[in-house]
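Researcher: Let's do a round of design. I'm pasting the structure tokens now; please hold your answer until I've finished.
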């Protein structure tokens, strides 16, 4: 992993000093201070936040959704809703990646990559990161929407038992299997005119969210766009490869996915190599959970799940 010159992007509280280009450690920076790094031999961009002191307890890898970017997880309107700030305050490093075809990697992958190929590239990048940086007990994946699709494939990649190779758990939000009737009415790839599906009622979000979110938006790579309609058929095979604990969260006003009891039972049954995932319906939330007023609740529940996963890790020695 190569680290670009440190570029502080913000902090939960106070001010701190970020080290130079090596990026291996930071001293004096508050938990939640964010810097830009590069992964995968310089191909992939990411935002990283580390605990204020000491090695991390784990590394949380946050994977953004369709047409989004890593700032989605940084509380762009309400700092108290930042996943990066909360997780680092609890002792975890957070790496919010730019998926292949977004941001820095668009020059290398102008059409993007299929979801499974995105996952393969991210797996190699995380292995490279672990070879140079402390990762605590291992990695924990959190994926939103289309980023959840990539994270699901990533969880099915080869992982090991040593901390640097260990996958602790997978937390997916806004990512199901079959699209809802409302979503299926959109032409071809389900991508056009989907504002109501992406957001739900406007009252679910802090004032200024929609103005601030414009800076988060990115073009959807063509390879990802083309895969959208094939997801329902590919979900079972991807889920069947996952061996770590899994948790699924959907907002009360989630519009993209079918969420009737029969559908949810069928979704959880696809995870045949791990225990059936827990399914949470978050009150007062739409599709973009990490931007809404309910973001702190979702992030706390996701981190509680991470704590449960850490509790299953064998003691060292």
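Researcher: That's everything. Go ahead.
Model: Designed sequence:
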């Amino acid at each position: 992993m190569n680290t670009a010159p440190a570029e502080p992007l913000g902090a939960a509280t106070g001010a701190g000093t970020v080290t130079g280009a090596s990026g291996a450690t930071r001293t004096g920076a508050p938990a939640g201070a964010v810097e830009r790094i590069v992964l995968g031999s310089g191909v992939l961009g990411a935002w990283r936040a580390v605990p204020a002191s000491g090695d991390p307890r784990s590394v949380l890898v946050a994977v953004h959704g369709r047409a989004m970017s890593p700032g989605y997880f940084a509380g762009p309107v309400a700092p108290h809703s930042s996943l990066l700030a909360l997780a680092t305050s609890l002792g975890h490093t957070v790496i919010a990646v730019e998926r292949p075809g977004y941001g820095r990697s668009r020059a290398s992958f102008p059409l993007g990559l299929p979801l499974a190929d995105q996952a393969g590239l991210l797996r190699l990048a995380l292995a490279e990161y672990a070879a140079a940086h402390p990762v605590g007990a291992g990695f924990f994946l959190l994926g939103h929407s289309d980023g959840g699709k990539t994270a699901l494939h990533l969880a099915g990649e080869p992982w090991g038992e040593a901390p640097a190779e260990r996958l602790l758990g997978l937390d997916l939000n806004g990512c199901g299997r079959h699209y809802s009737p409302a979503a299926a009415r959109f032409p071809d790839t389900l991508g056009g005119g989907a504002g109501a599906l992406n957001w739900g009622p406007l009252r679910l979000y802090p004032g200024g969210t929609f103005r601030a979110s414009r800076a988060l938006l990115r073009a959807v790579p063509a390879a990802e766009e083309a895969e959208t309609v094939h997801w329902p058929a590919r979900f079972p095979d991807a889920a069947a490869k996952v061996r770590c604990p899994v948790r699924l969260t959907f907002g009360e006003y989630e519009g993209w996915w079918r969420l009737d009891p029969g559908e949810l039972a069928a979704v959880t049954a696809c995870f045949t190599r791990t225990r059936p995932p827990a399914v949470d319906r978050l009150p007062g939330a739409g599709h973009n959970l990490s931007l809404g007023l309910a973001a702190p609740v979702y992030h706390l529940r996701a981190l509680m799940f991470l704590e449960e996963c850490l509790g299953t890790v064998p003691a060292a020695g």
